């Protein structure tokens, strides 16, 4: 998702207290920002933020950080947040996930959500897929021992690729389904913007949970 340049989005983001601007300086210090020792869950590529905002609302004892690459998209999440309830357990970062290990320290993150990540269909771009062995190797550096990566997508090609990448990276597949909404894993599921759109069209939603033995 890359929305047309939204006028003033950079300025709006710069002035927003819930966007962390010194993200590399926070490495190893995220608990100080939240002022508690609650677990930290992040979503990479949160888009307009529907999923993470609802998660944060339902789970005040978990700290959430939503990461989005584009200002034009993040600004939409900020607008949505303004309309919702006040929450102190949710912050945002505008950044490319490629630099995630500059931002989070070893064991600092307890869960990583990847929702409807860009498929990068060309073989030569496979490394850019957020479930590639390259990215799993980065997540390994920040994920706590009991940590999990939870990935949802409508894209069967990307999902099959991800199912292969998990063991190739030395990770373990905890569970997976090709039809989340008709599975035992659907209880408590929070729909993302893309999930709402694709499931309305009748497309089944794939989901996997992966971890590595530490
Ligand atoms: N997660 C949302 C949903 O399910 O509705 C948005 C899905 S959209 C297809 C993918 C989002 O991931 C886009 O907003 C895109 O800008 C963001 N994204 C893609 N690659 C990224 C990266 N390397 N780092 C951070 N965000 C990224």
From TrEMBL:
<keyword id="KW-0949">S-adenosyl-L-methionine</keyword>
<keyword id="KW-0819">tRNA processing</keyword>
<comment type="pathway">
    <text>tRNA modification; N(7)-methylguanine-tRNA biosynthesis.</text>
</comment>
<keyword id="KW-0489">Methyltransferase</keyword>
<feature type="binding site">
    <location>
        <begin position="192"/>
        <end position="195"/>
    </location>
    <ligand>
        <name>substrate</name>
    </ligand>
</feature>
<protein>
    <recommendedName>
        <fullName>tRNA (guanine-N(7)-)-methyltransferase</fullName>
        <ecNumber>2.1.1.33</ecNumber>
    </recommendedName>
</protein>
<feature type="binding site">
    <location>
        <position position="154"/>
    </location>
    <ligand>
        <name>substrate</name>
    </ligand>
</feature>
<feature type="binding site">
    <location>
        <position position="122"/>
    </location>
    <ligand>
        <name>substrate</name>
    </ligand>
</feature>
<feature type="binding site">
    <location>
        <position position="96"/>
    </location>
    <ligand>
        <name>S-adenosyl-L-methionine</name>
    </ligand>
</feature>
<comment type="similarity">
    <text>Belongs to the class I-like SAM-binding methyltransferase superfamily. TrmB family.</text>
</comment>
<dbReference type="InterPro" id="IPR029063">
    <property type="entry name" value="SAM-dependent_MTases_sf"/>
</dbReference>
<feature type="binding site">
    <location>
        <position position="43"/>
    </location>
    <ligand>
        <name>S-adenosyl-L-methionine</name>
    </ligand>
</feature>
<dbReference type="Pfam" id="PF02390">
    <property type="entry name" value="Methyltransf_4"/>
</dbReference>
<feature type="binding site">
    <location>
        <position position="118"/>
    </location>
    <ligand>
        <name>S-adenosyl-L-methionine</name>
    </ligand>
</feature>
<comment type="function">
    <text>Catalyzes the formation of N(7)-methylguanine at position 46 (m7G46) in tRNA.</text>
</comment>
<dbReference type="GO" id="GO:0043527">
    <property type="term" value="C:tRNA methyltransferase complex"/>
</dbReference>
<dbReference type="GO" id="GO:0008176">
    <property type="term" value="F:tRNA (guanine(46)-N7)-methyltransferase activity"/>
</dbReference>
<feature type="binding site">
    <location>
        <position position="68"/>
    </location>
    <ligand>
        <name>S-adenosyl-L-methionine</name>
    </ligand>
</feature>
<dbReference type="InterPro" id="IPR003358">
    <property type="entry name" value="tRNA_(Gua-N-7)_MeTrfase_Trmb"/>
</dbReference>
<keyword id="KW-0808">Transferase</keyword>
<dbReference type="InterPro" id="IPR055361">
    <property type="entry name" value="tRNA_methyltr_TrmB_bact"/>
</dbReference>
């Amino acid at each position: 998702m890359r929305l047309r340049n939204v006028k003033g989005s950079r300025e709006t983001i710069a002035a927003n207290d819930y966007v962390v601007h010194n993200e590399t300086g926070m490495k190893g210090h995220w608990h100080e920002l939240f002022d508690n020792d609650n677990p930290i869950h992040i979503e990479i590529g949160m888009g307009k933020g529907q999923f993470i905002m609802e998660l944060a609302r339902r789970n005040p004892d978990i700290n959430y950080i939503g990461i989005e690459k584009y200002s034009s998209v993040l600004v939409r999440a900020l607008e949505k947040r303004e309309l919702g309830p006040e929450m102190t357990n949710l912050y945002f970062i505008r950044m490319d996930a490629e630099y995630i290990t500059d931002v989070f320290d070893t064991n600092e993150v307890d869960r990583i959500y990847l929702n409807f990540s860009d498929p990068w269909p060309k073989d030569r771009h496979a490394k850019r897929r957020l479930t590639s062995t390259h990215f799993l190797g980065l997540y390994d550096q920040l994920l706590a021992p009991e940590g999990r990566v939870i990935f949802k997508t409508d894209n069967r090609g990307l999902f099959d690729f991800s199912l292969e990448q998990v063991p190739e990276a030395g990770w373990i597949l905890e569970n997976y389904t090709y039809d989340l909404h008709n599975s035992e894993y659907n209880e408590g599921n929070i729909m993302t913007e893309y999930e709402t759109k694709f499931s309305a069209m009748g497309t089944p939603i794939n989901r996997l949970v992966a971890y590595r033995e530490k």
